[in-house]
Design goal:
2 domains, 5 helices, two-stranded parallel ribbon, 150 residues, 4 strands, 45% helix, alpha/beta
Length: 150
């Protein structure tokens, strides 16, 4: 993940998860340094709706213009925030049966899968390129959570 995307993801998740004291403390430290060194980053916009992709893009552009992604001390605080988020479980989403990253393939076939557990997902991918057939078939998902499933 590029530094700007990492920072925005940490800010958005941190803004949404400040109920945890460890996340709240780490988020406050990032926010304080951001205000001190990088005037003009529209963080309030993101705090109003942390899941909004357009708001995340505005903050990403502001961070890029300000040079925040090149500031070592700021990046260390962002890493600490990400660590606090990870420990708290605040940013966790569905657990994928397959988590593909940096894959280049002519064909990709995933068959006969049974995925079971809380918040189960079948496939998550980042930087995946398949030039031919991509098939996912014969999949069963059993979530242990109550409520409707997507």
């Amino acid at each position: 993940m590029d530094p700007l995307s990492m920072i925005v993801a940490a800010l958005a998740t941190g803004a949404a998860a400040v109920a945890s004291s460890a996340v709240g403390d780490a988020y406050a430290a990032v926010k304080t340094l951001l205000r001190q060194r990088f005037d003009g980053v529209a963080l309030e916009t993101l705090e109003q709706n942390p899941k909004s992709a357009p708001r995340q893009e505005v903050v990403k552009e502001d961070l890029d213009t300000s040079g925040a992604a090149r500031d070592e001390e700021f990046l260390q605080l962002v890493q600490q925030l990400l660590g606090a988020i990870e420990k708290s479980g605040a940013g966790s989403g569905p657990v994928p049966a397959f988590d593909l990253e940096h894959v280049r393939a002519a064909e990709l076939v995933i068959k006969r899968i049974v995925a079971e557990g809380p918040s189960t997902a079948i496939l998550r991918g980042h930087d995946v390129e398949v030039t031919g057939m991509f098939e996912v078939s014969d999949v069963t998902v059993r979530s242990t959570e109550s409520g409707p499933k997507a």
